[in-house]
């Protein structure tokens, strides 16, 4: 910064006052920039959902029960294509919360729900990946729904208190990890 003093004492005093104002503005900037950055970082950190296996005696949900009561759920599937699914989600319709995903397709009839489940069950087992029924829980342990997949993880950020976004699982483990072709279903 270059300072030019013009006109003796009065100009110098004026210049000093100008410099003080500049320093105060600079100090505000030094304080405000980190505070705003911290706020944006904290605000940008979303909560995440998690997958949990059923573990207690009162937790008796099965994939068969979900298939039989499929109309009570908003059902999504993902994978390479409908014939090679990697996961199926059962999102509870009665809870006012929603599970969404960009590369998930909706299943609207029993035939597709049943076939998707059968195709996941028929996939070649590659240890430690085998089809299991997972609970989908929010950060507050609230049950959003269920996922049937051979994967043991999923990325599920929560955008607001009522919406969970599940990132796609683009291929089943037997294709991703490497293994023989899937067993065919007749």
Would you mind describing this structure in some detail?
The chain is an alpha+beta fold and 186 residues long. It has two domains: 1-45, no CATH class; 48-176, no CATH class. It contains four helices and ten strands. The strands form two sheets. Strands 2-7-8-4-3-6 form a six-stranded antiparallel beta sheet, covered by helices on one side. A four-stranded mixed beta sheet has the order 1-9-10-5, with no helix packed on it. A hairpin with a 2-residue loop joins strand 9 (157-160) and strand 10. The radius of gyration is 28 Å and the shape is elongated. The N and C termini lie far apart (80 Å). The model is unreliable at 37-44 (pLDDT under 50).
Fill in the keyword field for this structure.
six-stranded antiparallel beta sheet; 2 domains; 186 residues; alpha+beta
Order of neighbouring strands in the sheet with most strands: 2-7-8-4-3-6
Number of domains: 2
Oligomer: single chain
Order of helices and strands: HEEHEEEEHEEEEH
Shape by Cα distribution: elongated
Proportion of residues in extended strands: 25-35%
Summarize the main sheet: 6 strands, antiparallel
Derived from helix and strand composition plus strand pairing, the structural class reads alpha+beta
Taking all Cα atoms into account, the compactness measure Rg is: 28 Å
Total strand count, please? 10
Terminal CA distance reads: 80 Å
Which residue ranges are poorly predicted, with pLDDT under 50 across at least 5 consecutive positions? 37-44
In DSSP terms (H or I, runs of 4 or more residues), the helix count works out at: 4
pLDDT averaged residue by residue:
80
Q: How much helix is in the residues?
A: 25-40%
